[in-house]
Amino acid sequence: MTTQADTHTPLVVRTRDELRDAQMRWALAGPLDGAADDGPGRRVVVMTMGALHEGHLELVRTARTEAGANGQVVVTIFVNPLQFGQGEDLDRYPRDLEGDVAKLAGVGADVVFAPTPDVVYPDGDPVVRVSAGYVGEVLEGEHRPGHLDGVLTVVLKLMHLVRPDVALFGEKDAQQLLAVRRMVRDLEVPVEVVGVPTVRESDGLALSSRNAYLTGDERERALTLSRALRAGSDAAEQGATGVINAAREVLDGADGVVVDYLALVDPATVQAVPDDFSGRALLLVAARVGTTRLIDNQAVEVLPQR
């Protein structure tokens, strides 16, 4: 257990037995000296694939607050093969467990669960998997078939292994967050799912582990995504069609940016909103810059048209 002021390195566990031992020792430890005796606190999990950046660390800081002084924060680091399609970057996805653990020192993580694939999938690829349903068939699902099924399968397995009270996810992966929330609700998983706002560089680029793939020129071109989202948001008074047109104009004017999709959707369903829509919507974009695929989104309050 830790407080936000502590700088100790979290305990790293690699197996199911080691994870259970860490959980049992926490449950038996009782409240920290000087902390309010409010019981054992809550266990909060942040699920990652490693290659941690400031966005991940902000999730962990938020987790520390959610857990409280007597709670336990678990960070999982696992590059899940089920969510990578053929020809995607599974083999070259950045892996640096030692560096990741060093970054987690002092931000509130108590335990790092870093299993190998044979720990998560002891019988090989699972025969029974979670289906994302229609949520996994549009947008990301259309361009990465089976991706969200793989995400939900590993998220559910990790929830069973870690047994958290709360699970935190970044809002940058908006469709993933919606799918996880829907799975938890539909399958009666006793976990509270909390979204944490996207962390950006000072120039607006959304933080992503895949940003490490970008060259200097590609990084400059990648800013087109956040610029398009801002342009769309600024056109909110022109209605849903105006939002899409303003964002598309920025994307169409950029060299070296290949758009997979641009969509204005209902944040509760990820379904495209009608032209006469008004209210809160999500503007989503996915594009390739060089060989790197990036996603981003922004909430937009679409104004009614007279």
UniProtKB/TrEMBL annotation:
Catalytic activity field: (R)-pantoate + beta-alanine + ATP = (R)-pantothenate + AMP + diphosphate + H(+)
Record has Cell membrane as a keyword: no
Pathway where it operates: Cofactor biosynthesis; (R)-pantothenate biosynthesis; (R)-pantothenate from (R)-pantoate and beta-alanine: step 1/1
Binding-site residues for beta-alanine, renumbered to this chain: Q83
GO biological-process terms attached to the record: pantothenate biosynthetic process
Residues where ATP binds: 49-56, 170-173, 199, 207-210
GO cellular component: cytosol
Location(s), subcellular: Cytoplasm
Parts of the chain that traverse the membrane: none
GO molecular function: ATP binding; pantoate-beta-alanine ligase activity
EC supergroup of this enzyme: ligase
Family the UniProt entry places it in: Belongs to the pantothenate synthetase family.
Protein name per Swiss-Prot or TrEMBL: Pantothenate synthetase
Gene field: panC
